[in-house]
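Figure 6 in text form: structure in, sequence out.
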């Protein structure tokens, strides 16, 4: 057979294969259809995309060009954009300044701490920072500890504004000097007829109840019976009781006076490590011309995005998002970071970028199409940044937000997202012979929380693709 004929026949065959794949991509796999029926999720509330990570036509494309609310899957745009714009080894520096001479262990002036958006200044790292201050020979500060939080210029934020749950840690607001996500852990331990209460970290000037009476009955909702009263943030009260059947429990919550959290926690930590403070911990600016005594560095971005994506940490994602404009424009603002991210998207992918509000997905305004998510995931797979990015996603059945799943363990790395009426998954499925597929599945519907069995069916189907 002449070469031209063979080439023509191969071309026709290739076109036929592509056409068949394109046609197949218009529908959902039968097992996914069945799972959606069982969940009573209508087809027009679900968007699905499956395509090869290395490129090629989609295997499933159901409502792939429909803009949807992605919930926390929006963090993929923030974290991958940050990897490209800042680099995986980028860190945040928190400069510490000393004003005045040190005589016999006493600083005759102020200590200034200038926040620059570090997303992971948790308690053990704050301890290290303050120990560095003591290593300068300072054990007593005759002046104040002054907190410069001016690197971000943000409007006041009501932690109850999103869903009326101001004490939920996911509603904590970002700030230039974010410490420990502005959260506390209340541990309740039954002992005799009472339950002992311990709180970490300590907050200067805040009184917590030492104990709460035990009650009989089953351990169901144990938080409501505590009858916690946070109306006076400096004096917390528990007027109820705790079910003895619960054993030890820990309640993670956001401190009810978020603006006071960082000053209170720094004052307490300084005293806990043996430091003395004659003045107070207050807000202020670093004096012009004063040079830092040292700079305290954060973990690298590649490590930070693992916490963000695996555990869907909203305030960390917002810190990274605001850093985009801080590094580009000198001050971190919401609109400045939206502008940076939109510009990056247009240059990288072309077309209209996704709608971003705060970079975390904790929003009713953010939207993206499954095809846009597919574009991003394909670009990430082909990038030298791929190992850091994929490693940040929850491993199905092993860690992060997917650690409790017991089906298809290890077969996928998927970012999850959930809000009322929103459920979303996006990431990579591991197929046979080393193949990788991109999977995106989103439901925007009052029954969206029932999407998971359909996603499990889709993962199973995708993992068996040739």
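Output sequence:
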């Amino acid at each position: 057979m002449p070469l031209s004929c063979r080439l023509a026949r191969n071309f026709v065959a290739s076109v036929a294969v592509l056409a068949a794949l394109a046609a197949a991509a218009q529908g959902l796999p039968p097992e996914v259809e069945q799972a959606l029926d069982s969940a009573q999720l209508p087809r027009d509330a679900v968007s699905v995309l499956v395509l090869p990570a290395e490129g090629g036509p989609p295997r499933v494309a159901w409502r792939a060009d429909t803009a949807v609310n992605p919930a926390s899957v929006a963090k993929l745009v923030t974290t991958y954009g940050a990897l490209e714009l800042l680099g995986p080894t980028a860190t945040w520096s928190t400069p510490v300044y000393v004003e005045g001479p040190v005589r016999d262990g006493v600083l005759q002036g102020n200590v200034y701490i200038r926040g620059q958006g570090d997303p992971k200044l948790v308690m053990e790292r704050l301890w290290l920072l303050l120990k560095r201050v003591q290593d300068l020979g300072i054990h007593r500060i005759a002046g104040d500890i002054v907190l410069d939080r001016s690197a971000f210029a943000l409007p006041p934020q009501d932690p109850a504004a999103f869903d009326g749950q101001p004490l939920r840690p996911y509603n904590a607001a970002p700030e230039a000097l974010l410490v420990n996500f502005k959260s506390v852990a209340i541990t309740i331990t039954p002992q005799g007829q009472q339950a002992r209460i311990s709180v970490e970290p300590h907050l200067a000037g805040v009184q917590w109840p030492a104990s709460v009476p035990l009650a009989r009955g089953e351990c169901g909702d144990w938080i409501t019976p505590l009858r916690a009263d946070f109306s006076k943030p400096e004096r917390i009260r528990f007027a109820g009781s705790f079910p003895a059947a619960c054993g030890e429990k820990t309640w993670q919550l956001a401190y009810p006076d978020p603006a006071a959290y960082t000053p209170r926690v720094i004052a307490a930590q300084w005293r806990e490590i043996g430091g003395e403070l004659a003045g107070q911990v207050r807000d202020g600016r670093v004096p012009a011309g004063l040079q830092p005594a040292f700079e305290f560095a954060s973990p690298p971005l590649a490590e930070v995005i693992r916490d963000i994506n695996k555990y869907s940490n909203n305030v960390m994602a917002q810190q990274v998002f605001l850093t985009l404009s801080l590094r580009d424009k000198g001050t971190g603002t919401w609109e400045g970071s939206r502008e940076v991210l939109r510009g990056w998207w247009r240059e990288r992918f072309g077309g209209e970028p996704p709608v971003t509000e705060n970079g975390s997905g904790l929003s009713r305004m953010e939207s993206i199409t499954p095809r846009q998510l597919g574009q991003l995931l394909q670009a990430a797979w082909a990038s030298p940044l791929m190992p850091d990015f994929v490693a940040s996603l929850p491993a199905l059945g092993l860690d992060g937000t997917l650690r409790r799943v017991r089906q298809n363990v290890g077969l996928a790395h998927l970012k999850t997202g959930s809000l009322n009426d929103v459920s979303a998954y996006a990431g990579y499925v591991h197929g046979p012979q080393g193949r990788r597929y991109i999977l995106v599945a989103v439901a925007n519907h009052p029954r969206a929380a029932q999407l998971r069995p359909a996603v499990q069916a889709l993962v199973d189907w995708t993992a068996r693709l040739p």
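Caption detail: Residues 1-24 have pLDDT under 50 and may be disordered.
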